[in-house]
Every structure is written in structure tokens, then in C-alpha cells.
Amino acid sequence: MTSLLAAALAAGGCTTTGWVVASPPPVIVTDVEVVAPPYDEVWSVDVFYEELTEYGVWLDDPSYGRVFEPYGDDFAPYRDGRWVMTEHGFTWVSDEPFGWACYHYGRWMFEGRWRWVPDTEWAPAWVEWRETDDTVAWSPLPPRDGRWRPPRDAWRGARWNDVLAPDLRRRSLDGAALAGVFDRLRPIERHGKSPHGRRWA
């Protein structure tokens, strides 16, 4: 591409001496280490019960079995933390003490309050992505049976330039700010793979 552009400039009488096409700088995350487990799965969701108890309550749901409801009336998933780029793609790094489990194993549902449905398969994040030319948005994926769809206010977003910002919560878009672009958001159909080859969206 560079040689083609240089040839076109030369044909137009322009010189390319000293002209260099710069690649965008790589995204480097130095203050956070995100390590996927050496395997894709935990053996049983039982590992989460005791570990998460101090951060919320476990409830019995008729459709999904035991689900975890974090403390906090205003809790919403994928809000307190940030995105980092890792070898697995966009990976959520939570500021919440239960984030190691709830954002990488299992999915979310909303029934008056957010509830986490645990699973044993790891992913960098279990979210649906949508975008416009300058905005990206994400929402928790529903449990595997797909009976539940996230409400509009479950979506969070950011300008593409801000999505990897360390202070993402301050820069993020939700509510009225995201409503202005919501109808123009289109699904992102790119997928990645977990450490051992399982696909994630």
C-alpha cells in the first residue's frame, strides 16, 4: 500500500523524501495482568458459592438453578472496570472483588435486579458488541437458552478512542448519552477463541 501511494504521489509530481507512513502504536497494557486459566473450564460451579458469598446472595431460580445477586441497589454488570486488549481480544478487568468469576464464567440476567448465572467455561468477557463508526457498545449476554434479552438500559458504550481508557467509567456512555446513537448501532460479528479453541462472541 505504501509503495502504491508513493508511486501515485510521484506520478503527480510530489516527492516522498522524508515521508513515512506511520502505523498506529500498539496497545500495551502495563499495569494490569490478565491471565486466562491454563484450561477453559472450572470443574464445577460449586467453586463459586463460598468464594462469592460475602459479595452478594445466592438465590434459587426456577429456570437456572442457583444464581448470584451482587449487593448494591444500583449494581450493573460491565460498568465498574475497563477493557484491555489481550491475546484473547477485548478482556474485561473488573474493579469488583467478584469480577474474576462473574465476568469470565457464566452470564447475566435481569429480573428487577441483576443476577449472574454461573457456568464453567472461561471467556475474556460474555458480552454482545455493537458499533457505529465512532462508538462501541456492550451488553451482558443472556444465559445460553436465550430466553432473556438485555433491556436497552443494560447497554454501556464509549467512543472508540476511549474504549481502552483506564478511567473508562468516567468516559463511558449510558442512558441518554447512548440513547442518541442506540438505533444506529450495528452488531459486531467478529469472534475470538478461548485459550483452547472454544469460540466466544
How is this structure best summarized?
The chain is of the alpha+beta class.
Please give the radius of gyration in angstroms.
Answer: 21 Å
- The parts where pLDDT drops under 50 for at least 5 residues are 1-30, 193-201
Strand order of the largest sheet: 9-8-7-10
Largest sheet: 4 strands, antiparallel
Instruction: Give the helix/strand class.
Output: alpha+beta
Mean pLDDT: 79
- Report the end-to-end length measured between terminal Cα atoms: 31 Å
Number of helices: 5
Number of domains: 1
> Helical proportion?
10-25%
Secondary-structure element pattern, one letter each? HHEEEEHEEEEEHHEEE
Strand content: 25-35%
Q: What is the count of β-strands? A: 12
Shape: globular
Q: What would you note in describing this structure?
A:
The protein has helices at about 1-10, 45-50, 100, 170, 175-180, and strands spanning about 55-60, 65-70, 80-85, 90-95, 105-110, 115-120, 125-130, 135-140, 155-160, 185, 190-195, 200. It has five helices and twelve strands. The strands form five sheets. It has a four-stranded antiparallel sheet, with no helix packed on it. Mean pLDDT is about 80; it is low at about 1-30 and about 195-200.
